[in-house]
Structure formats: structure tokens, C-alpha cells
């Protein structure tokens, strides 16, 4: 860890230039020749990345950032805070500590935390930053997490793991066994050290694939931020044999949309109908969950088609996703399209429809934007239709 960047003049320069054009800045002469210019530029770029994602770090003084990529790959504060709200106890060990954003929020819920990070430089950076952030209940281990678990030889309330995909696994179907550490291979060893484990995976992991590799899964959490799925969490408890609950959360600026259901529950069926007064599009966390029959049953609303994943009702409900008032329903035929949408402006979405958004726009000369929302989809009678709507939420 290079501490020369902590010089007050350099820190002031980094703060002042946060958000500046790095390419232009790189052409300038280094005003601090005793410190590596690339290092200073990296700090400026990483701090700019942290502004929206990590406001606590961004606003604190004397923070040292790792590479820009490390900042891009870390959890955002919003997802870390939500994650910490899911579990509690006295002690937790993070086997893949990284930049320490998750552990910062775990530190508010647990008495003691162990941060394992095999990269000694990154471990030192996090230790330094925690001193600036006044985190006092975390111990740092710059070592392989398996060694730490063996050497400490103690029982933890929780183990937290965010395995990273091995480079040689690129191009393969994403599986947990292709990550470091290899969680499925080490699961029995981990259960010797803790009865509860929280595993974070990339959102592209297929839920059924994760379940095929793990055991004792109690809860699966899908976390989205502003309708973009960011994390998939598997919560496992030693010897757990009960039902698996799938919990979705879409973190928005002013609220968190949540929905949950029992995986593979019996007697959950969708009802179907033609478009009614209102249209609903589930948020991305629910879309990832695959709980489409459960949405229909819980909210008592109708699906348009088995594969369309759009819902409709006569009366407006509070729905975890986007809601629209249906102004008009037209058949996807040349005459009706010419009459209603040719050369018009609209936001176009397709759901269970044979043409792409790009193709539809080009074909009917539909300009993007405006207050009209058009859903090109298939109804319960397998007819291709267009729902012309105005957005409610």
C-alpha cells in the first residue's frame, strides 16, 4: 500500500479532480513528481466511480482506493445494507473480503467480524479505510480463507462468501464449482466452522443450477437495484430440510419492492384473461425468480398468456413493478398498425413476441420516447396484439 497519496495536497488534488476527464488529465505534467502519476490518476478514477455507488467512502477523508475494477466489482452500499438486514448474530467471517463494503454493513449487525483477503495490499487498504470510517470490530487476515478458518479453529455464527469466477471458466455455463473458493467442494468443511452460510453469486447464475450444487438451502434472495438484478444470495443452514423460500427485493430511491413465495409450492396456478383496464410488468427481481404463477395467485390478477409474463386487472393494485392504464388494444395487423402507430412516438417493449424492438421500430417508423407505452405481446388465445398504454408507476 502506497501511503504517499495520503499527503494533504495530493488528497485535495484527487478530490478536486474527481469526475475530471482522465485522458486529458493524464497528458498533464505530474504536479507531485515524488508520487507515481498513474497511482494518482487511478485514485481519481476510482473515487469518481465511488460517488454514486459508495457515498460513505466518497465523502470520507483519506480513503485509499484499489483499482477501478475492484470498485466496479464490489457491492454497492445499498445492496450491502440490504444484505446485512437479512442476517444477524455475534460473529461472522467473510472469506472473500475484497474492498470491505459488505463487511462495513455487517459490522453494524455483528459484534465481531473477520475480513479475509488473500491480496495483502488490498487487505491493508481496507484496514486503513476502516480506521477512517471508525469501524473497530473487524480483524484482518491477509491469507487464504481456508488457512484462516483452520488456524483460528473457532465456531462462527455465519460464514459469508462471494466467490469469484476462475479465469479458465470463461465461456462455460456458470457454476459455483467454477469459482474460487469452490463452495460445493468445501461445504462440509465450512459447516464444521459455522452452522449458517450466506453465499453471494453473480445474477447470471441459474437458480436451479445453484440448488443442484448446494444443500440445506433455506432462503434464496434476489436483490435488484433500480430494477437491475445485482445479486443472488443462497442462505444455507446446516441440516436444514424444510421448504425453500424465494425472496425478491427491488431497491428503489424511495422504497423497496418485496415479494416472496415458497419454491415448488403446490396449488399455485395462474388465471388468464384478455387485457382489462390495467397492465402490470413485474420488476427484474421477480422476473429472475420465475415465480409467475405465484404473482397471479397472490395478487389475484390475470396473466395474458402462459409465456407473456404480463398481468392485467379491472381494478388498480399496488404492484411490485411497473403499472399502466391500457388505453387501447389492437391486433398486430398492417391496417391497424398503420392507423395507430405508423410514424408515431412511443416506448416499445416486447414480451412473448416474435419480432425484436429494433425491428418493430424500423418497420413502423416508431420514434423512441414520449408518454405512450406500447407492449407487443401474445394474448391467451395466441393472438399477436399491441397494448397502447400510459404509465401509472
Automatic annotation (TrEMBL):
A Gene Ontology molecular function term of the record: methyltransferase activity
Record InterPro entries: PG_1098_Fer (IPR054168), SAM-dependent_MTases_sf (IPR029063), Thump-like (IPR041497)
One example of a Gene Ontology biological process annotation: methylation
Keyword Signal: no
Location of the PG-1098 ferredoxin-like domain: 278-320
Gene3D superfamilies: Methyltransferase PG1098, N-terminal domain (1.10.10.1110), Vaccinia Virus protein VP39 (3.40.50.150)
Keywords annotated in UniProt: Methyltransferase, Transferase
Protein name, per record: Class I SAM-dependent methyltransferase
Organism: Flavobacterium endoglycinae
